[in-house]
Design brief:
mainly alpha, about 220 residues, about 65% helix, single chain, 8 helices, globular
Length: about 220
């Protein structure tokens, strides 16, 4: 699984307007699957994320999913975790959340949560999932309109809101709280680091996607 996730990070971690990276820039070898070193198997050129970073993140998230998931939500949580690792690295590297990833995340969660609700005989929970998803999407759409966030943040919030809605309104509010808290702490740390280096603080960008994902996972873990 990790080689596939690393390959997806390499493919989608490109700036807006550039073509997806489907091959090594140096030798044109396919990069669908990449080793933990992050180097092209043919020419040994570095492609995508740093060595072992994707693998370490995937392992940590897998442990968290095992601890957090119950029988009904395991598949949906695993789906969100797998794509979430890719989205976090892509957003962290190029400040971008491609629709090629956020839309499959939302669609997959919708199918898996619907199947779980039917299997458990409580389809009414899907109404709450939809309401939380709409509320989360709308909440993050406003900063997008104001130019404070990228256009991919609201679809990601919509998808993760549906997942949080499965666990209840309290967990959904916890997810928002953890997201804001973690993003705020990261912004403060970056500002302090910039001041220590005597660099300007204004203009520092904070990728929202990784903190939406971390906030969601944290809320599900502590529920």
């Amino acid at each position: 699984m990790a080689p596939l996730l690393r390959g997806l990070v390499a493919r989608f971690a490109v700036p807006e307007g550039e073509a997806w990276c489907r091959a090594c820039p140096s030798c044109a070898a396919p990069t669908r699957l990449l080793p933990p070193t992050g180097r092209c198997p043919r020419c040994r050129e570095r492609v995508g994320a740093g060595a072992w970073t994707v693998e370490a993140a995937a392992a940590a998230v897998a442990v968290a999913v095992v601890l957090a998931a119950d029988g009904s939500s395991a598949a949906a949580l695993a789906w969100a975790a797998g794509l979430g690792v890719v989205l976090a690295f892509v957003d962290g590297r190029v400040r971008r959340l491609p629709y090629r990833l956020t839309l499959p995340l939302a669609a997959g969660l919708a199918v898996l949560l619907a199947a779980s609700a039917v299997a458990e005989g409580r389809p009414g929970v899907l109404v709450r999932c939809l309401l939380v998803a709409l509320a989360a999407g709308a909440l993050f759409e406003l900063p997008v309109w104001l130019g404070l966030m990228g256009p991919g943040d609201s679809p990601l919030a919509f998808a993760l809101g549906g997942l949080l809605g499965w666990y209840g309104w309290g967990v959904a509010f916890s997810g928002l709280f953890f997201t804001v808290l973690l993003a705020g702490l990261w912004a403060v740390l970056r500002a302090v680091a910039a001041l220590a280096r005597r660099r300007p603080v204004r203009g520092l960008e904070v990728p929202v996607g990784p903190f939406l994902l971390l906030g969601t996972l944290s809320a599900v873990l502590v529920r």
